[in-house]
Amino acid sequence: MRKEMVSVVSQKEIARNIFELKVKGDVVSDMTSPGQFVHMRVSDSFQPLLRRPISICDVDLTSQTLTMLYRKEGAGTSLLSEKKDGDMIDLLGPLGNGFPLDALAEGKTALLVGGGIGVPPLYYLAKQLQKRGIKVISVLGFQSFEDAFYKEKFEAVGEVFISTADGSQGCKGFVTDVIKSHSFTYDLLYSCGPSVMLKALEQQVPSASGYFSLEERMGCGIGACFACVCHVNGGLPSDYVKVCSNGPVFPIGEVVL
Amino acid sequence: MRKEMVSVVSQKEIARNIFELKVKGDVVSDMTSPGQFVHMRVSDSFQPLLRRPISICDVDLTSQTLTMLYRKEGAGTSLLSEKKDGDMIDLLGPLGNGFPLDALAEGKTALLVGGGIGVPPLYYLAKQLQKRGIKVISVLGFQSFEDAFYKEKFEAVGEVFISTADGSQGCKGFVTDVIKSHSFTYDLLYSCGPSVMLKALEQQVPSASGYFSLEERMGCGIGACFACVCHVNGGLPSDYVKVCSNGPVFPIGEVVL
Amino acid sequence: MNRLAISLPGLDMKNPIMPASGCFGFGREYAGFYDLSVLGAAAIKAATAEARFGNPTPRVAETHSGMLNAIGLQNPGVDKIMEKELPFLKSYNIPIVANIAGSRDEDYCEVARKLSSHPQVSVLELNISCPNVKEGGIQFGTDPKTAAELTKKVKSVSSKPVYVKLSPNVSNISEMAKAVEEAGADGLSMINTLLGMRIDLKTRKPILANKTGGLSGPAIKPVAIRMIHEVSQAVSIPIIGMGGVTCAEDVIEFMLAGASAVAIGTANFVDPLICPDIISKLPELLDHMNVNHISELIGGSWKECEVPSLSR
Amino acid sequence: MNRLAISLPGLDMKNPIMPASGCFGFGREYAGFYDLSVLGAAAIKAATAEARFGNPTPRVAETHSGMLNAIGLQNPGVDKIMEKELPFLKSYNIPIVANIAGSRDEDYCEVARKLSSHPQVSVLELNISCPNVKEGGIQFGTDPKTAAELTKKVKSVSSKPVYVKLSPNVSNISEMAKAVEEAGADGLSMINTLLGMRIDLKTRKPILANKTGGLSGPAIKPVAIRMIHEVSQAVSIPIIGMGGVTCAEDVIEFMLAGASAVAIGTANFVDPLICPDIISKLPELLDHMNVNHISELIGGSWKECEVPSLSR
Ligand SMILES: Cc1cc2nc3c(=O)[nH]c(=O)nc-3n(C[C@H](O)[C@H](O)[C@H](O)COP(=O)(O)OP(=O)(O)OC[C@H]3O[C@@H](n4cnc5c(N)ncnc54)[C@H](O)[C@@H]3O)c2cc1C
Ligand SMILES: Cc1cc2nc3c(=O)[nH]c(=O)nc-3n(C[C@H](O)[C@H](O)[C@H](O)COP(=O)(O)OP(=O)(O)OC[C@H]3O[C@@H](n4cnc5c(N)ncnc54)[C@H](O)[C@@H]3O)c2cc1C
Ligand SMILES: Cc1cc2nc3c(=O)[nH]c(=O)nc-3n(C[C@H](O)[C@H](O)[C@H](O)COP(=O)(O)O)c2cc1C
Ligand SMILES: Cc1cc2nc3c(=O)[nH]c(=O)nc-3n(C[C@H](O)[C@H](O)[C@H](O)COP(=O)(O)O)c2cc1C
Ligand code: FES
Ligand code: FES
């Protein structure tokens, strides 16, 4: 975890409002755990004031290059989308705890389930799992064909199933529909996406064990401000975990979604 | 007076922290009166919130190009100094009333006295006066050699005397010292500079008639907010003029400095 | 049907947008930029009984996402305003909100009587909250009793509806609001500026000659929103909301909080075309939000679904 | 001579800079970024008698040059803080400001008694101003009498100096300050956050689950400066200033206003290295201002030349 000025290597829009941003810097060498995130200042002024959390999507350790995918939504990500090659970005990272890689032995199967802008961290995970000889099945859900991205990239590391809410690509419906209609055999589930999706998974795939990556509005991103807490299943009412520093990845069932 | 997005043609540092900025746009066609100013947003965000008033230094009506000179001081002018060729700037102008050009007949002599960043508006004035067959003598005061600018440009339109506070160029001292040591013969005095300088002129050249261009912190720049008022000499206590819309140029003696 | 029309006591507005008092002079300057008849209404600069020069300069300073002003109620006095300024606005045919200020009850009443009798004035806006005038205003704005008494007196001499403009520099804004409502106020304007200061490192003195000034602009928007959210639930008179509005989305946020109309102050200095720009963007935004008429949004943040919003 | 050293009741600080309560946790996280021993002091997160989870999420929202928070005083309770958190800070050997909160007098007193007896705690900071806790806090912070009584009680059980942290959400901040000074407060901390709100256009509800939150960051700096300027002239106990500090220049501005030390809150989230960065920049700034010792700046905006500053 350090603060460093990284330089923009490239930026392009790869789907509707979805940007792929590559940055370079020494700090990238620390980014070995998929599921971790970085916290970036998108402006030199205090508008916006807070940093923006973005997941690590891919890392090239040799060239110290970090790839991030983000959806241009509000003021912060709009400013981020204006960054050009050579621009410097104030980056804090890597933050939080990623997906445990040694939870699965060689030869086992991992089911990766991503929804929308929850897909990016699963890509680095997929690559790392495959490298360890683990079979990867990816189920990726998007709103529509125009919003889908990285299908080919995921296909390079395993089987891929796409769902879109409007049916314009892959199966019409949600990731849970894909999972219900195929009877995948897998050992662990890894998922990242909107909390409605994670809740649906918890309910509709109750037997699954594995890991969820959560999102919560953040202040500091490092565990100091208590903005991003969640209740713990079966804990005291005052028990909590912080998404930024205890997560964002938690064993399924550990926290109250 | 209109609001227009103008595009940056060039920007360079011509003296210590003094920048020459050229912009292009239809609105420049309205800028025929030296002494008027423009009011610019230097950022798309609200940091800084208010526009910045900068004088018209030179205008090329054919190419619709406006030249401004400014000193990089605080947050606003720092941001302005980062503008690059092709960048767009939100400009309001031309604002206020400039120096009357027909106050002098052909063949008469004008003494132009500028201090520091008060020098720029005098350049467009000097050019216009010369074009009308008026003899121009310029007395320009700066802190030091490093801060001086546009000497050659002024020399192209008339005789030039420089003073620097540290004596590193021209006469050591202030513009008033130059005026005292030379006994210039002139018909009208035109001056722009810090209010201490204008006050000194008023006291030490009491006989002078002519025009002063004033500065005051501004809100709107167009006469609506009453931020920039001055008392009127010999008026009621409630009498006032607004620097932005009644000025910035006033007949010497009209307003309380 | 005009989806933007809002009707409030004394104010028939074709849209909820008006420039805020003190940020629009008497309209002349902005008339050079756009046709003022597009405005829902216009609040003119505070009138006092006599002409006032106001405070010494510097009168403005910038802050992060905001500005401080200490104009000090400069104005030519109520008589000149009626003679020289109001006639200019006549041809635009928009409701006029006449802001009135003073240091004593009698002054307020004199100005109120005169202005309310002017045919062009639609409503009075009782400024009991100007933070920049030593002798008066501010104590009216922080003590519910004094505010209520003044409101009563002004109401008794005014032939037009009276809106009371509240100061945010109070411990309990609802108490103030309820006091002036009971005293007969027909509506509220809120918020005026927050008291603030900046110190110059070079001179080591406050930048403003008046030392303190009123903080306005985007920086204060969250304070305005929470006060309007609170007060709109505590009173039943309408609120003209203001404080940091810079875009159509902000207007919607103020109306969801509980404002029935929205005034735009500081943003006029940043962009003289801001009022017509916002007005023209509102219909599109309503479409986007699936809202038929803008009045449906008033108080929308608390009117329905109070319980569900608590449960998240 | 250490040009930055500041000595206040219970606080021997090698420089006037401390992280503000609630913005620094208990120091662990920032210890990963820099050596905490460079700090002048550190204010730790509010302690309550029992463990508190605080408010539901979302707990933060952004505003122009500011942020809203409604953490709701989440903390593990005073006992756990003394056992588990304070020992971690021991090795850094810096004065600790222990922030205490509660909803009833007894709670405050229990926490005060316990924490003041802890050897590592240098002073207590009585938080009577947390705007995010329904049952309590805020009324202590807006009523001078209640605040004074609480201060007295806490003083009577505390073996360490007590600083009272004032809320800016009041009509008359000097009155509050004088009341707690008379009640025995050894110093003041000001300001806490301004009450604010943001409404989400999509859900039409407040963004924060708690609806309202505390506004902090650069947006509130002018409010803090004017309150410190006023209060420092009204009382004779020292003030720890805070509210929107983001750079060394801001620190100087707070001290010129009348603060004797300066706390940094929100800016830690923007830049975890902000405290050491500011500390390292102060000497250069003093040189630039021709100031020998930083304490010479305290109250510099009003201490001398009161009259000349009025005349401009
Ligand atoms: C651990 C983590 C990893 C993330 N990874 C990615 C990623 O790889 N790609 C991506 O596109 N997005 C990701 N997000 C969400 C992303 O941070 C938000 O979309 C982004 O901050 C929105 O900023 P904005 O200025 O565009 O939106 P605004 O709505 O203007 O933001 C306002 C505030 O809300 C916060 N906010 C808004 N939406 C979210 C959200 N969904 N989660 C958390 N905070 C939010 C912002 O940080 C900011 O403080 C991640 C969030 C977290 C917590
Ligand atoms: C009519 C007029 C014409 C001007 N022409 C020029 C010019 O041609 N070249 C040039 O360099 N400067 C000129 N100035 C001064 C220039 O506007 C200020 O230097 C500039 O606004 C400072 O902005 P900043 O953000 O760098 O400084 P900051 O100190 O950060 O500014 C803070 C605020 O103070 C105001 N301000 C600061 N200094 C002045 C000042 N001297 N006069 C008015 N407002 C001020 C700013 O506009 C801003 O609102 C002119 C001013 C006026 C009123
Ligand atoms: C320069 C200036 C002058 C103002 N003058 C007045 C005034 O005369 N009467 C009044 O009631 N409010 C006055 N106000 C307050 C505004 O009407 C408005 O309530 C406040 O600025 C908040 O809105 P804003 O953030 O959109 O500016 C003034 C504000 C500014 C910035
Ligand atoms: C996330 C957050 C949590 C806070 N928690 C506390 C707290 O527990 N006790 C307290 O006295 N102040 C608390 N504060 C207020 C700060 O200590 C400080 O007074 C305020 O934020 C203004 O300073 P700033 O603008 O530098 O943040 C908190 C502020 C923030 C932003
Ligand atoms: S974001 Fe601050 S504790 Fe998690
Ligand atoms: S700057 Fe607004 S009236 Fe001159």
Automatic annotation (TrEMBL), chains A, B:
Pathway: Pyrimidine metabolism; UMP biosynthesis via de novo pathway; orotate from (S)-dihydroorotate (NAD(+) route): step 1/1. FAD binds at residues 52-55, 69-71, 76-77. Its cofactor is FAD; [2Fe-2S] cluster. The keyword Transport applies. The keyword Protein transport does not apply. Binds 1 FAD per subunit. Binds 1 [2Fe-2S] cluster per subunit. Keywords: 2Fe-2S, Electron transport, FAD, Flavoprotein, Iron, Iron-sulfur, Metal-binding, Pyrimidine biosynthesis, Transport. [2Fe-2S] cluster binds at residues 220, 225, 228, 244. InterPro entries: Cyt_c3_hydrogenase_gsu (IPR012165), Dihydroorotate_DH_ele_sf (IPR037117), Dihydroorotate_DH_Fe-S-bd (IPR019480), Dihydroorotate_DHASE_ETsu (IPR023455), FAD-bd_FR_type (IPR017927), FNR_nucleotide-bd (IPR039261), PyrK_electron_transfer (IPR050353), Riboflavin_synthase-like_b-brl (IPR017938). Residues 1-101 form the FAD-binding FR-type domain. Gene3D superfamilies: Dihydroorotate dehydrogenase, electron transfer subunit (2.10.240.10), Nucleotide-binding domain of ferredoxin-NADP reductase (FNR) module (3.40.50.80), Translation factors (2.40.30.10). HAMAP family: DHODB_Fe_S_bind. Belongs to the PyrK family. NCBIfam families: PRK00054.1-2, PRK00054.1-4. Responsible for channeling the electrons from the oxidation of dihydroorotate from the FMN redox center in the PyrD type B subunit to the ultimate electron acceptor NAD(+). Heterotetramer of 2 PyrK and 2 PyrD type B subunits. This is Dihydroorotate dehydrogenase B (NAD(+)), electron transfer subunit.
UniProtKB/TrEMBL annotation, chains C, D:
Residues 4-286 form the Dihydroorotate dehydrogenase catalytic domain. The active site is at 130 (nucleophile). FMN binds at residues 21, 45-46, 99, 127, 165, 191, 217, 243-244, 265-266. Substrate binds at residues 45, 69-73, 127, 192-193. Its EC number is 1.3.-.-. It catalyses: (S)-dihydroorotate + NAD(+) = orotate + NADH + H(+); (S)-dihydroorotate + A = orotate + AH2. Its cofactor is FMN. Binds 1 FMN per subunit. Pfam families: DHO_dh (PF01180). CDD domains: DHOD_1B_like. Keywords: Cytoplasm, Flavoprotein, FMN, Oxidoreductase, Pyrimidine biosynthesis. InterPro entries: Aldolase_TIM, DHO_dehydrogenase, DHOD_1B, Dihydroorotate_DH_1, Dihydroorotate_DH_1_2, Dihydroorotate_DH_cat, Dihydroorotate_DH_CS, Dihydroorotate_DH_I. Its main location: cytoplasm. One of its GO terms (molecular function) is dihydroorotate dehydrogenase (NAD+) activity. It is an enzyme of class 1 (oxidoreductase). It is found in: Cytoplasm. Pathway: Pyrimidine metabolism; UMP biosynthesis via de novo pathway; orotate from (S)-dihydroorotate (NAD(+) route): step 1/1. HAMAP family: DHO_dh_type1. Heterotetramer of 2 PyrK and 2 PyrD type B subunits. Belongs to the dihydroorotate dehydrogenase family. Type 1 subfamily. Catalyzes the conversion of dihydroorotate to orotate with NAD(+) as electron acceptor. This is Dihydroorotate dehydrogenase. It comes from Fictibacillus terranigra.
